[in-house]
Amino acid sequence: xxxxxxxxxxxxxxxxxxxxxxxxxxxxxxxxxxxxxxxxxxxxxxxxxxxxxxxxxxxxxxxxxxxxxxxxxxxxxxxxxxxxxxxxxxxxxxxxxxxxxxxxxxxxxxxxxxxxxxxxxxxxxxxxxxxxxxxxxxxxxxxxxxxxxxxxxxxxxxxxxxxxxxxxxxxxxxxxxxxxxxxxxxxxxxxxxxxxxxxxxxxxxxxxxxxxxxxxxxxxxxxxxxxxxxxxxxxxxxxxxxxxxxxxxxxxxxx
Length: 255
Ligand SMILES: NC(=O)c1ccc[n+]([C@@H]2O[C@H](COP(=O)([O-])OP(=O)(O)OC[C@H]3O[C@@H](n4cnc5c(N)ncnc54)[C@H](O)[C@@H]3O)[C@@H](O)[C@H]2O)c1
Prior knowledge:
Layout: E1 8-12, H1 17-28, E2 32-37, H2 40-50, E3 55-58, H3 64-78, E4 83-86, H4 101-126, E5 133-138, H5 151-173, E6 178-185, H6 191-198, H7 222-233, E7 244-247
Parallel strand pairs: 1-2, 1-4, 2-3, 4-5, 5-6, 6-7
Helix pairs in contact: 1-2, 1-7, 3-4, 4-5
Bound molecules: nicotinamide-adenine-dinucleotide.
């Protein structure tokens, strides 16, 4: 019996990086996984890697109509939705002065609007079932920091952190069996971090062997995030709601 046996999980941006690791880990523990992404080849590959009847649906999280279709497809294929991981994201390495209006709007379309649509329509579907349900919003340590090279990114992740808390309390006050939490990874070894480093953003360098073993902060592995997502998806975390979970090996609380 897996830790989330039979729960239906939707992961946005699951065609690579953290979303892929989440999909594989959730499926390993019995989750029925729907992977969505604009990257069709990556998404289909993740579905194959995850197994356990995982499916891929092409989905741009900025598209409100597409959200409704993806959730309807999830319900018709697996019968319900229990876990939503709002993971899709991009990074733009620009300061407040160099960010263009177009870049600002693109970052917010994906990470602010995308999470808003996921919450709005995901809650609408989840509240229909009698199970315990969980929404996990992927924010970042950037939500807590003055982070000059990641101006629009940090602003969007701050919005994700805030939306999480209002949605969590809304669900509770409405009597829905839906918890909403945010996770805040630091530097994790994915293509996004490689891009940020190549474009001059200051992100942690890998510790020995790229492995963030204590004590040094270093870069984490996608599995470090996936194991946290699994815990929040499962009923093991049933008393954790509206919380913000750092996954950064103590990086941002250092004096
Ligand atoms: N890697 C890190 O160090 C790190 C740290 C903190 C937070 N995060 C967050 O974790 C999430 C995943 O990041 P990652 O490192 O795996 O990045 P990644 O670039 O490896 O993967 C992101 C995925 O999102 C998809 N995506 C982009 N735009 C999309 C859209 N409009 N609709 C649907 N899918 C879209 C991409 O195709 C890609 O498959 C992001 O929200 C990111 O901000 C990452």
